[in-house]
Amino acid sequence: MSSRVEREHVDLRALLDQLADAHLGEALDQGVARLRGLLPAHLAAEERPGGFLSEARKRAPERSADIDRLQIEHREILEALEGLDTDPERKERIDALCAVLRDHERRESELIAEIAYTEAGTVD
What we know:
Blueprint lengths: L2 H19 L4 H22 L4 H8 L4 H18 L8 H33 L2
Helix pairs in contact: 1-2, 1-5, 2-4, 4-5
């Protein structure tokens, strides 16, 4: 799998850490703006032909149900990102979204590792 995907996951985890530490105000606004700038392109790149999820589907067809779930979550994550600016319980929703993103990215990273491990074991 692409080291670019892994780097983006590291960058995303760092941003989630910043959002977790941010309180209401400018730091939180900037973090949400960065998330909005990063996430749609990151998720689209994972789903495009030749992207992480299509490659994972080719390399591990037995994990298709898990890959389908990850794709569904992409849409749910983007929907959750919408409307945060006007939400009176914004910080709580941001924290919940960060928890969902952390779990999602963890499962993607585990899938990458599993595929790499399986492929390494099949090489003579």
